[in-house]
Amino acid sequence: MLLDPALPVLTSFAHSVPRAIQLLRHGVKRIIIDHPSVGCRTFEKGNDSILQRYQTLTSLDSSIEWVANIDILAHSSNEQAIEHAIQTARQVGIRHIRVQDVGLIDWVRSVDPDTKVTLAVEIGNHSQAAISFWATQVNEQSVSNDVPASVLAQIDQPHSLECLVQGPVLMQWSKRSYLDGFTDSRVEGVDTEYPGRKLTFWQSEHGTVMLAYFHRCLLRDINVLRELGLGSWLIDARGQSDAYLEQALSVYQAPQLGMVDIRHAMGVLQTESDRPQLPGFFRGNSTDQERDGVRPNAIVGHITDSQSGSHLVMRARRNGDVSEPVMALNPTSQIKPITLMGATSLLGEPITQFKVGDWLVLPFQKGVVVKTWVIDFAPHPDAI
Amino acid sequence: MGPELLAPAGNWDKLHVALRFGADAVYVGGKVFGLRKYAENFTNPELEAAVQRVHEASKKIYVVLNGFAHDSDLRALIPHLDFLNDIRPDAVIVSDWAVAERVLHHTDIPLHVSTQASVTHWRAAKRWVNLGAKRVILARETSLQDCQSIKDHVDTELEVFIHGAMCASYSGKCVISNYSAGRDSNRGGCVQSCRHSYHLHTPTQSDDRYMMNARDLMAIDWVQSAIEVGITSFKIEGRMKSTHYVANACHVYRQALTALSQLPPHTPLSDTLRQSYADQLSRVSNRTFSGGGFNDLRDSINTQDGGTQKSRQLLGLVQFQHQNRSLIESRSPFRVGQSIRVFTPLGETECQVTSLWDIHNRPIEQANPGALVWMPGSWVSGDVICC
C-alpha cells in the first residue's frame, strides 16, 4: 500500500505472528511486541517465552522498528521478569522499550544507554508542563487520553509524542482480581448505575483492567489530528478482531483521508467492537470544574446552624472584623444580604473581631440557611 | 524515636481532634489543588492558622497538592506555592512531576511523593529521590517485601498507609469518574463508581457483584513488621471521614505504637491486645477490613455488599467547655434521657443526657443536626459524643 509521507508513524501492538504479519502487510513501520509476563493488558495468556516471542516476531522483518512493551508496575515479585524482558530485548536487537513505571526508565538505560524509551503512562502527562518535563527524561511519550487537542497544539516538540487514535480506553488498572469464579479471563459487564454502557474487564497475573464503554476514534477529527504534527498515531487493537484492525489500518493511513468514507469505516469499527466510536477528551476536557462555586479567597465563613426567628451560627474561615461588608451565597447559589454586626460569642458576649475557627452567633437573617457561604462583598456577581 | 502517626485533617475540627487523640502529624488540603474537592478543605487563612497551631503543639503538618495537574491548575499553583513558602508547612505532598518541579523550584519546602504516584519499587522511589523528594508515600499495593527492598536500595523516608478506605485500582491509575461522570478522579472529582454493583457476563456465566468494592485497610497485624522494615510514617486515610473516625483511628494506633515501643524487639502484640484494637477500629463506619497490600491483597474485595457497617453513631463534637457545661455541635439528633458515650483520649465513658439547652440557655428536649447545644459535663474541646 502506498503510504502518505505526511502521516506520522503508525504504531500498533502485536502478540502473535499472524497479527504482526497483518500489520506488516499494511506497511506498519513500528510494532510494539506485547507479552503477558510484562504487559498489563495483553488480552492473551501466551505459552511462548519472552525470548521466543521477541525472536519470532522481530525475525519477520528486520527493517522496521520493533518495540518491547514492559508496562507493568514493578514489584519485588516481578523484578526478574522485567530484568529478563529488558535483557532479552537487547539480546534480540530491540532498541526501543515502552514503560509505564518511571523506575524502568533508568533500569532500561542501565542495560543499554542507547535504547529508546517511550513513557506510556495512563495518567501523569496531561499538561504542557508535564509533557515538557518528560521530554527531558525519555525519548518519546504516549500522552494521556485526557489531553485535548488544544493542549497538544501548544507542545513545542510534538514529533516526540504518540497519541491513541483508535482503540479501547483503559479506565482503571488494579492489582486485585475482580473476576474470580469466572472461567474466562475476559468478561463483559455493566455498572448497574450506568446501564447500557458495556464495559470490558480483563484479568491476568498482574491484576484486572477495565476498559471503557466506547472506543476512542479520532476519524471525525482527522484534520485536527494531522495538523498537530504528532510523531506517532497509536492504533490499539489488542483484544479486537482482525477485521477491526484491518479497517483501522486502512482508514488511518489512507493516502487522501478526505476521500475516505469515514462514516462507513466507523460503522465497521463499531460493529466489530460492539462499542460506540467516540473522540473521548480529544475535543475538550472540562472535568476540572470547581465544585464550591465560590472563590476560595472570598470565603469569610460558613453557616452551621440557622434557627428561624432566633439566630444563625457562623464558623469563621478567616480572621476578620464584624464591620466588614459581606454577603451570603446559599446552597442554591442565591446571593442574600447578611451582616455580621451584632455578633456574639457562644457565651453571649459581643464580638467585634474574630479569628479562624471562631463561632459567631448572629441575629437571624431571612434566606440564610445551613451550608450558606459568607463571603466578601463584591459589587458584581462575576467576582464571586 | 518511634515512627510517626500521620492523620487526616479534612477541616479545622478534624485537625484539632487528630492532635488531641495522638497524631504526630496531620495532612491537610488547601482550596487549591488538593484532590478532595468534596472535603471542606482549608482556606488560606485556615492553612496559615493550622500551621501555627500544629507547630505550637510541636507536631508536623503536610499540605497535599496531589492532583495530576492540567494547565489551568498550574497557572494557579505558583501563587499558592509562594503562599505556602511563607507559612512554612513541614512538607507538601505531590503526585505530578510538573507540580513537583514547581515545588522544588519555587519553594524550599520538603517534597513528599503521594501514593497517587504509584511507587511500588525501589527504582521508581530512587527516581523521585534523585529529583529531590524527601519522602515517598508508597502505593497501597506495596508489600512488606517491596518496602524492605526499597528501604535497602534507597536512602529516603518511607510512608505507608495503615488504615482507611482504599482505591480498588492502583491509586492514580483510575479515570472511571472522568468517563462515567465527567469528573476527574485525579483532581478530586472521584465519584466512587468502584463501589457500585456490576453485572458481569460471558457466553456461559453471569454474576452480579460489587466487584471493585475494596475493603478498608486495617494494618494492626502488620505495624510491627513495618516498624522493623524502617518505615518512617504510618498514615491514616480519610480527610473526608468523620471526626469520630479520626479520633478512633488515632486513638487505637497511638495505643498500638506505644505498646509496641514498650515491648522487646521482635515481640508481637498479644492476641488479646490485637483483638481489642481490631474491635475498637470496627466500631466506626467501615467497609469491612483487609490487610491490603501487606497481605498481598488477599480477600481485599467485599463483593457482597457495597455499604458500610458500624456499631457507633456519631452524635456530636464538644466545641467548648464553660462552668461545668459542654457546648456540643450536634451531628445527629439526640434527646434528654438518652444514653450516650463520650469518647476522650482516655477511652469511652457512658453517661445519660440529663438536660440540654440551646445557645440562648433555653431548655430543649432534643439536639438537632447542626445545632449548638449545651449539655452538663466538663468535657474538653475535641471530645466526641456518640452512641
Account of the 3D structure:
The complex is a heterodimer of chains A (384) and B (387). Chain A is of the alpha/beta class. Chain A has an eight-stranded parallel barrel with strand order 1-2-3-4-5-6-7-11, surrounded by six helices. In chain A, strands 17-16-20-13-14-19 form a six-stranded antiparallel sheet, with no helix packed on it. Chain A has a two-stranded antiparallel ribbon with strand order 15-18. Chain A contains nine helices and 20 strands. In chain A, helix 6 links the parallel strand 6 and strand 7. Chain A starts with 8 loop residues before the first strand and ends in an 8-residue tail after the last strand. Chain A is elongated. Chain A has two domains: 222 residues, Phosphoenolpyruvate-binding domains (TIM Barrel), CATH 3.20.20.60; 88 residues, Translation factors (Elongation Factor Tu (Ef-tu), domain 3). Chain B is an alpha/beta fold and 387 residues long. Chain B has two domains: 292 residues, Aldolase class I (TIM Barrel, Alpha-Beta Barrel); 73 residues, Beta Barrel (Elongation Factor Tu (Ef-tu), domain 3). In chain B, the strands form four sheets. An eight-stranded parallel barrel of chain B has the order 1-2-3-4-5-6-7-11, surrounded by five helices. A seven-stranded antiparallel sheet of chain B has the order 17-16-21-13-14-20-18, with helices on one face. A two-stranded antiparallel sheet of chain B has the order 8-9. In chain B, helix 3 runs parallel beside helix 4, helix 5 packs across helix 6 and helix 9 runs antiparallel to helix 10. Chains A and B meet through helix 4, helix 5, strand 7, strand 8 and strand 10 of A and helix 2, helix 3, helix 4, helix 5 and helix 6 of B. Strand 8 of chain A pairs antiparallel with strand 8 of chain B.
